[in-house]
Amino acid sequence: MAANPGKLNRRALSKEVRRRELIDATIKCISKKGLGSTTLADVASEAGLSQGIVNLHFKSKDNLLAETLRSIADEYHEQFMQTLEESAPDPAAQLLALMEMDLKPAICDRKKLAVWFAFLGEVKAVPTYRKICSERNQKYDRIMLDLATDVIRDGGYENVDARAVADVLSSLTDGMWLSCLMNPGIFDRHHALETVRHYLGAVFPGHCKEE
């Protein structure tokens, strides 16, 4: 008897939904307890499921953690590429749009940031984490460098170094994320964005005028 395609699709969808629930639960647990203290039992309890279900879908804590990191990295990648595609075509506007994206609540979210920094703290010890984080950083750094290079070429900013601009913007993002995580009561997204605008306006005065 041939398999029912509709039934198979429902099973696949159900599996994906369950995995998503478990990854979301893992994010919550890590944000509360950290990587080392989070157990499969914690994740199961947070998701309202049995530990056997966690084992069924991920086999081990290591697999679950790696998939959680990939999920966060993939989500960021989708937002990054969508922002790049939908922003104005000139590179200066794209640089600013990408920096604005980094401050949106969906990205600059304390739970997700806590998880991201937790994984970054383990990249030296866990090759899988290092590979995921390295691939992410290399790709985005290259895009930011290319955009900065295009602005410099277009505006004739002979004394501006594209690599330095890309590095500063990356450091600004890291600093703003850390501030959001560590000092939520005083972190101000608007002020953070104005800081970015001020820097870009100072480096590229003909392209990025402060509002």
Describe this structure in words.
23% of the residues are buried. The mean pLDDT is 89. The protein has helices spanning 5-33, 40-47, 51-58, 61-86, 91-102, 110-120, 127-155, 162-182, 189-203. With 211 residues, it is mostly helical. It has 2 domains: 1-59, Homeodomain-like (Arc Repressor Mutant, subunit A, Orthogonal Bundle), CATH 1.10.10.60; 62-211, Tetracycline Repressor, domain 2 (Orthogonal Bundle), CATH 1.10.357.10. The N and C termini lie far apart (68 Å). The protein contains 9 helices and no strands.
In terms of topology, how is this protein built?
Blueprint: H1 5-33, H2 40-47, H3 51-58, H4 61-86, H5 91-102, H6 110-120, H7 127-155, H8 162-182, H9 189-203
Major sheet description: none
**Secondary-structure element series:** HHHHHHHHH
Number of helices: 9
How would you state the average pLDDT, rounded? 89
Count of all domains = 2
Annotation, overall tally of beta strands: 0
In CATH terms, what is the architecture of the largest domain? Orthogonal Bundle
CATH class category label of the largest domain: Mainly Alpha
Provide a quick synopsis of the model.
With 211 residues, the protein is mainly α. It has helices spanning 5-33, 40-47, 51-58, 61-86, 91-102, 110-120, 127-155, 162-182, 189-203.
Please give a handful of descriptors for the protein shown.
2 domains; 211 residues; Arc Repressor Mutant, subunit A; 9 helices; single chain; mainly alpha; Tetracycline Repressor, domain 2; elongated
